[in-house]
């Protein structure tokens, strides 16, 4: 038996660890199961390259509660440690063995999915335990080792009689952390952090009913057996190749992620990149109905299949936080502050990549099946329009698939709009006039009047449309958007003056005076219409500039792109 002092620069690091290492004590389990997973994947790699001459088999990880003994066990069948390795990897706090392993096997182990990073994960055990034991047997032909530490810098290391390969971590749960001896609490943590980890994780057993044999007798009684209760899916959809997945697979995975979500997603985007950074994932466009509050915090961030957070702010561009799904990247720094994250160059690259990829996917969906895309337009437009306003990179690509619907159900892209309207709807300066309504019912008489004149009217009814219009006008010099009930409609070059009012000139004048008297505000004008339609005999309009002034003052001027000011749907 040896005794010694753990190699730390501060005299007693444990109180510090307990307080400051992670604000969330519960993540100790994530760290320990990650280490068990790393140990298993390292062995897999070493057997694969022939360096470990042992049978890899079908290793699992087990998490076990000993309520009476107030202990929590995490047991793996991974590569284990020799006594010397325990000295090296455990006693040297912040000496990350995972990094050393990856360094040593740089080229061959690149894609092994090994998690460890910081060399402090193991010590997070002391956030919930006042004593920790490691019993470990290496795959190398050496005696097993037993390490014990009660939270002071002193430890003991002695031989153990463990014969099977792998490591068992025993946490003697502290009195202030007994919640971690509750089955429901551990189950909750496993399903939060470990649901998609790559090695099967056993937590208890469950009974399974055996299938009824074909030659079963009449009085056959169903037989049950106890099987391992595996709490994770080691091969989640995002780790597979898009070509190997069907539409059903994507939908099934959506339900796996959101068991309480009954509505099917509209479509998914499979992210898959390994250069210049590593990132996989699947994003889903949910059906965003109008009365639904924007739900953020629906995208889950993983690192090598370990759940990290569902706050992806800064990693996913803001407009896409309305989507759902998972992102997995070993290149997003774990356990670091948000401000650091936002300043990290890699993270910005990731965000840009996601934006680009989403735009590309939308473009190909549009090109593959335009009709389907048009049908879904109302459910996705708010995300896309918001994206055009907030991300220039998205705006640049959006021209290829963003649609402008007409009141009668046609859809134009911006280019089609220009092409279609160029001979029909231009003002005196030759600018293309895009008439639009925001509310088909309330503005129906204006719409009809415009249609009677041969104009097409768009229906732009999302809450951020006036901002979008400003942007479009700013970027397209020859384009002007005019609300269908504005006075500009008269400035359009009329094709022909065929329509004639049913009223005589005298009657028209009288009517105009009468109506003007009852219209309260001087900001409106009364126009008599050429009536060859069922529209009203006169139209009350508000000059476009007055309307815009009012809208601008209501939206509070600038700063409208922050999510905080994003209109509620
Ligand atoms: P990291 O995982 O970032 O390397 P940790 O503090 O979590 O840092 O673990 C330190 C080291 O201890 C690991 O790199 C590994 O070498 C060793 N280790 C921890 N847990 C196990 C385990 N279950 N099996 C084998 N080695 C382990
Ligand atoms: Mg670790």
From TrEMBL:
Keywords: ATP-binding, Chaperone, Cytoplasm, Nucleotide-binding, Stress response. ATP binds at residues 31, 35, 76, 81, 96-97, 167, 338. InterPro entries: HATPase_C_sf (IPR036890), Heat_shock_protein_90_CS (IPR019805), HSP90_C (IPR037196), Hsp90_fam (IPR001404), Hsp90_N (IPR020575), Ribosomal_Su5_D2-typ_SF (IPR020568). CDD domains: HATPase_Hsp90-like. The keyword Chaperone applies. One of its GO terms (molecular function) is ATP-dependent protein folding chaperone. It comes from the Bacteria. Belongs to the heat shock protein 90 family. This is Chaperone protein HtpG. It comes from Flavobacterium agri.
